[in-house]
Amino acid sequence: MFVARQPVFEADETIWGYELLFRAGLENLAEVSDDSQATSSVIADGMTMAMEGVAESARFLINFPERMLLDGAGFALPPERCVVEVLENVAPSREVLHAVRKLKDAGYAIAVDDYFGQPELRPFLELADILKIDILALDGDPASIRQALDGVSGHGFRLLAEKVEDDATFRALADMGFSLFQGFFFSRPLVLSGRKLSVLETTRLQLLAELSGIDFEPRRLGQILESDPNLSYRLFRYINSAGFGLREKVTSLKRAIDMMGMVQARQWLSAVILADMNPTPKAGELAVMAVQRARFLEELCVETGQKVCRPDAVFLSGLFSLLDAMLGVRMGDILPGLPLDEEIVKGLNGQGEIHDLLSLAHSYERGHWADTSRRIGRLGLATSQVDRLYARSRNWAQKVVGGG
User: Fold this and answer.
1) Helices (DSSP H) in 181-305: which residue ranges?
2) CB neighbours of residue 111 within 10 Å
3) 23: alpha, beta or left? (left if phi > 0; alpha if psi -120 to 50)
4) Is residue 192 part of a domain?
5) What is the CATH number of the domain that holds 119?
6) Residue 303 is part of a domain; what is its CATH number?
7) What does the radius of gyration of the chain's CA atoms come to, in whole angstroms?
8) φ, ψ for residue 183 (rounded to 5)?
């Protein structure tokens, strides 16, 4: 069992919650077993994974095929956190409508997936709390979107636009009455003409550049931490967290760095500095994604026996891969100020083996399981191996960016 997680934003770009995309078995199916007990177990385990490191207010959209609805698998989940998403290929039979009604009466919110005006799905609208519209399926055309919404007013549900791919579409949909948004518009750079980096952003970039340099001196790490009480505090929180299993608390910076090792300490500090670059909720989500990419690609590199990459190079590539979206500045304007190897620069510009590894992370984030499997196959690894690394990297990213 494996779960990917995609953020859902409010109109003010704060995080409302996440959609969980399940894959089970070797065939990469996007649905789980028909057996009710096994299904409940898979969803419960997936929820435990997905809730790691996110706000308690975050909601989770979970896809339910027909068999899962009829088996009552949703009752394994907490209604205050979970939204039951009825997939678009589920027919509103009397039995299915009864099953959905039972969930709604028990306090579960109901979402209807991929609606674009199909008459056969209208019976679900009476039960819906959220109506999801696939924007790409309607080619992003405003007239087609309005036609899909014709006759649905008055039901009281929220409109969720999914597969929103750019900022202009996001803002146009907000004007049309959508209040929830899903897609990768948030990870594409909105480049503001003439924008200059703030003093804080410039300082943080300079620190990242210093940490990334091959001539970085170990004693400098301690100096950076000593000069910033906030960073020192977060380091102590991180290293004294349950994950390290220490019997006594670490209160010395030198001991903390010694215990982590220079490589991991530099990685930790780079990740935290990146997360502090932009304090907005959208940038926070991007920071988690970038830190996860960095750790995932590093571990993937080690798992392949370092035949196709260097762990330090791919870590930095993942870490810097979303800087343009976080800062609203073109990647070409950022990279010259960072002392990066040519292979890293090529990867961030869409070329070479590092770009191929970044594309694998990209497929995971979007739940493109067929493309994910093809890319894993080229590396000569098992899907289960890579799934484990991806889940482990997400946990690490949440702990690092969240301060432990």
Assistant:
1) 199-212, 218-226, 229-239, 253-260, 262-275, 281-303
2) 26
3) beta
4) no
5) 3.20.20.450
6) 1.10.3210.10
7) 22
8) 145, -175
- Go through 313-337 and write b for each residue having 16 or more CB atoms within 10 A of its CB, e for each that does not: bbbbbbbbbbbbbbbebebeebbee
Q: Are 301 and 309 in contact (CB under 8 A)?
A: yes
Q: How many domains, the chain? A: 2
C-alpha to C-alpha distance for 383 and 26, rounded to whole angstroms:
8
Looking at the fold, whether 179 and 227 belong to one and the same domain comes out as: no
Report the phi/psi class of residue 145: left, alpha or beta, with left for phi > 0 and alpha for psi in -120 to 50. alpha
pLDDT digits (tens, 9 = 90+) for 173-215: 999 989 999 988 887 766 555 567 777 777 788 888 888 877 7
Cβ neighbours of 229 (radius 10 Å): 9
Euclidean distance between CA atoms 103 and 129, whole angstroms: 12
Last residue within a domain, chosen from 187, 222, 241: 187
310/213 same-domain check: yes
Measuring CA to CA, which residue among 373, 379, 399, 297 is closest to residue 2?
373
DSSP per-residue codes, 89-130? T----HHHHHHHHHHHHTT-EEEE-S-SS-GGGHHHHTT-SE
Residue 101 domain-assigned (yes or no): yes
- Kindly state the helix (H) or strand (E) to which residue 84 belongs, with its residue range: strand 82-86
Residue 303 amino acid letter: E
Please give the Cα distance from 43 to 65 (Å, whole number).
13
Q: Is the model's pTM score more than 0.85?
A: no
Domain closes at, from 187, 213, 245: 187
Same domain? 88 vs 173: yes
Instruction: Give pLDDT tens digits for 201-251.
Output: 777 888 888 888 777 787 888 888 888 888 888 888 888 875 666 677 887
Length of the chain, in residues: 404
From residue 160, how far is each of 164, 184, 314, 372 by CA, in Å? 10, 14, 35, 26
As a whole number of angstroms, the distance between CA 372 and CA 374 comes to 6
Containing structural domain, residue 351: 199-401
